[in-house]
Amino acid sequence: MARSTKDGRPGRDRDKPLYMISVAAELTGMHPQTLRVYEQKGLVTPGRSRGNTRLYSQADIERLNLISKLTDEGINLAGVVRILDMRERMLEREAELDELRARLRELEDEVHEYKMQERITALARYDSEGSPEQVMRRLLLGGAPGEKDEK
């Protein structure tokens, strides 16, 4: 199961297994046996220590609190599984959308840059004034039209 922050990005500290089952039970207000049942049903997957002790992360605690909230609202465990699955897929899609939006902004910037280069090149007559690069250099550095670049 992929774990992520509320905004869909991977969370390092949130996923670090820290809490033994007794602490996790206290933090969530659940009985340790309930946590074992939830693990059996695949609702939560705690880490394990070298001695095979269950260790729950902050993300696990948050997930257990959400499970508790859903069951308190009358949703059975099968419904909770479906809701959690849909929520996970939603968070993954949100992360994908964020990545796509960032890539779109990069591409928009590139297109804008190319369009500006085209406009500048179209405005500058370079057939008698040198190459487009020389004209661009003069325009950007403030050289007068007709001045030739020295090499």
Automatic annotation (TrEMBL):
It holds the Pfam family MerR_1. The keyword DNA repair does not apply. It comes from the Bacteria. Residues 18-86 form the HTH merR-type domain. Residues 83-117 form a coiled coil. One of its GO terms (molecular function) is DNA binding. CDD domains: HTH_HspR (cd04766). Keywords: Coiled coil, DNA-binding. The keyword Transport does not apply. PANTHER family: HTH-TYPE TRANSCRIPTIONAL REGULATOR YFMP, REDOX-CYCLING DRUG-SENSING TRANSCRIPTIONAL ACTIVATOR SOXR. This is Helix-turn-helix transcriptional regulator. It comes from Candidatus Olsenella pullistercoris. The lineage of its organism: Bacteria, Bacillati, Actinomycetota, Coriobacteriia, Coriobacteriales.
